[in-house]
Amino acid sequence: MNKKTNKDPELGISGKAVKVVDQIVMQLMARLTADAAGVAKLGKKSTLSSDHVEAAARLAMPFALAKHAVSEGTRALAAFKQPVDAAA
Q1: 38 in a domain, yes or no?
Q2: For 8, which of 16, 50, 65, 85 is 20 to 30 Å away at the CA?
């Protein structure tokens, strides 16, 4: 039986496609981590900062993708640093 199993029938993405995308993301994360660690080591730092990750993204990705990634990362970091409203 050659039945295609859809991970999300609404989107029509197969389980195999999900695995491929997952592998791509994991490889990119590994590369960013290694590059960020290298940038930190060059600066004689033992702790990664957002600046190290930003530099790694610029090194590992094409210009337009890196620009978008840095923009989204900056936005996410600002949201993370935002104090949580106690009234909510």
Answers
A1: yes
A2: 65
